[in-house]
Each structure stands twice: as structure tokens, then as C-alpha cells.
Specification:
The protein is mainly alpha-helical. It is about 40% helix and about 0% strand. It has 4 helices and no strands. Helix 1 packs antiparallel against helix 4.
């Protein structure tokens, strides 16, 4: 799932009217300005904090998928006893 999110950054929709053109610069391509008043707090800080902020969705999905699989194996599938036939004698 995380790989899909990371790959979609580089993929382009060619037939969608909402897509931006493949050639030329668009206003959305500009780097965020740290001087803007409404810029998120990692933008003015820059450095590793900005890189983590830019890739936060991919990192969150990677962490979820990386941790979810071992946890599922550790906990195991849910077990129910209601559908099993009773092997014990009924109480007297």
C-alpha cells in the first residue's frame, strides 16, 4: 500500500480533465514559501523535518502495513466456541 502511494507521486493521468498538463510549470509545482503566514510549521523549519512532512502519508502507510502483519500473526485469528459441538457431558 505504501509503495502504491509513493508511486502515484510519479504517475500521471493522461485522460482526466482534472489533470494538469505534462509539460510546463504550474503554480502548484512551486516549492512552499517559508515566508507565508499560513505555511505548515515544517515548511519554515526545513531540513529533515520538512522531508518527513512531505512523505508523511507514505511513511504512515508503510508503518501501518509493516506493524500490522506481525501483530496479526502474533494475536492470531479470532476463535469462537459457539459453532463447535460440545464434547463434554451435560451437567447433572
Amino acid at each position: 500500500m505504501a509503495a502504491f502511494v509513493v508511486l502515484t507521486v510519479h504517475l500521471r493521468q493522461k485522460g482526466s480533465p482534472e489533470s494538469k498538463p505534462l509539460q510546463g510549470k504550474q503554480p502548484v509545482d512551486a516549492e512552499p514559501s517559508p515566508r507565508k503566514l499560513n505555511a505548515p510549521w515544517p515548511v519554515p523549519r526545513g531540513g529533515i523535518v520538512l522531508k518527513l512532512y512531505e512523505n508523511s502519508l507514505g511513511l504512515a502507510l508503510f508503518a501501518y502495513s509493516f506493524c500490522h502483519s506481525p501483530c496479526t500473526r502474533w494475536v492470531g485469528p479470532p476463535t469462537t466456541t459457539t459453532n463447535r459441538p460440545s464434547t463434554e457431558a451435560p451437567p447433572r
